[in-house]
Amino acid sequence: MSLSDDLYRETILDHYHHPRNHGAIEHPTAQVEGVNPLCGDELTLYLNVKDNKIEDVKLTAKGCSINTASGSMMSELLLGKSIEEANEIVDLFKRMMLDKNEEVELPDELEDLEALRGVKKYPVRIKCALLPWNTMLEGLGNTLKSPTT
Amino acid sequence: MTKLNVEQIRKDFPILKRQVEGKQLVYLDNAATSQKPKVVIDALTEYYEGYNANIHRGIHTLAEEATDAYESVRETVRAFIDAEHTHEIIFTSGTTEAINLVANSWGNANILPGDEIVLTAMEHHSNLIPWQRLATERSAKLVFIPITEDGQLDMAEAKKLITDKTKIVAVTQMSNVFGTINPVKELAQLAHARGAVILVDGAQGVPHVKTSVRDLDVDFLAFSMHKMLGPTGVGILYGKTELLNAMPPFQSGGHMITTVSREKASWAELPWKFEAGTRNIADVIASGKAIEYLSALGMENVREHEIEITKYALEKLSELGDITIFGPKDATLRGGVIAFNVDAIHAHDIGQICADAAIAVRAGHHCCQPLMRDLNVMGTARASFYIYNTKEEVDLLFEALKEADKVLGHVAVR
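The joint structure predicted for all components is written out below.
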């Protein structure tokens, strides 16, 4: 039997079986819930932002493999980035996932995310891949609004 | 051995020849919608190419042919569910519209503040939301018959919950998650003993189990043709004459009137009082062919085939150590609907891996969100069988699930 090789390629399976930055932050500077009502995916994103830098990020996710893996990859890539850098990466990833003409290219440091490009073949699951990222946008937005950071 | 000639039946369904990315389609999503035999598909073309006309309007030949064909399906349906009169058969757009019709028309005329509407914990949203809205509008109360561990109705509780306050009991004939076939006849007796009426959601039951509204003594029965070999867009509402006669129209407009002045109108007789506007003529006509097809097979034989394949599937799938199967373990207590989870794998991942093997199963909450919360799951995968499914197809499903378990099961962190 051929599994959907595109979809469950090794990188995704690795992040799914061993999600990075899994868990909670006790006193986060931002905490956001993300829900995909269509499939019931739920995740909680915790951020610790100091001096405009993401010092810590944690996720607890109850979702499918795509959702879990996407969140794990995101946390790994955004840890230590400035809010501006993080916003740029989120924006680039979202454009890659939503662009129909395959024109969005990723720089080398984001090459892990290439694994998620295969999800585009399954339109209903693009939302699963995007949920952590949209939740992150909300978290970054909240952080900017908060006076304590 | 089952009396259905499955090999012969499969030849009647053009879609079953379909390949999905080079693999033979295995269609196990029949609880969502069934496939259609060629006779049903042909009936649509024959109507549109041969006698397309509006019904009950013109006096030209085509209009008469179309009217005859449409009205003759009413008799076909009557005979199929053993109703007393053809005028007790109302064509709707589906089960959902049929239930909404009763909740609106009967509900607004009969439900008063403080009245109770008895449902079950296993209802599809289509037999839940209309009653929620009615209860809110009329300040009535919803009461839910709970379910037992293995997905059957708790009848001891049902006896306590159906009381003199109960105005209607609305219950599914067969659960679209557990496959449980509910004791509708007993529930009808309980309802009637308290002066209440009973509505049965037959969307899952009627396609698979021989159903006699007179034997069950139900007041309303709603079901959809697309789950029983017919086209989408046709549902049936059966109602007892005296109830339907006492009910105001649901929708109003053309065709459902006798005389109209600028200020008022009088309603047409049954069944047309409930069939406002131009109905789904082509699909109703094709629905007649679907019922004839099932009747020729014999519903007892359909049931026998499904018990056999369900029994086989329950045994085979249980060989996967990591599987959780919901609902009764005894195939004779359930229809051919099996909801399951493999390890802690998300239902969408199971659905995807099955899809890659050209196996169509459903994954998600099955329009039963409250029930999913009761079961403490986000969703489940679901395989559902019909007359054309084979044990070989169950084996293919088994292989796909084994693969899913291997690739995605046994996750360390959650």
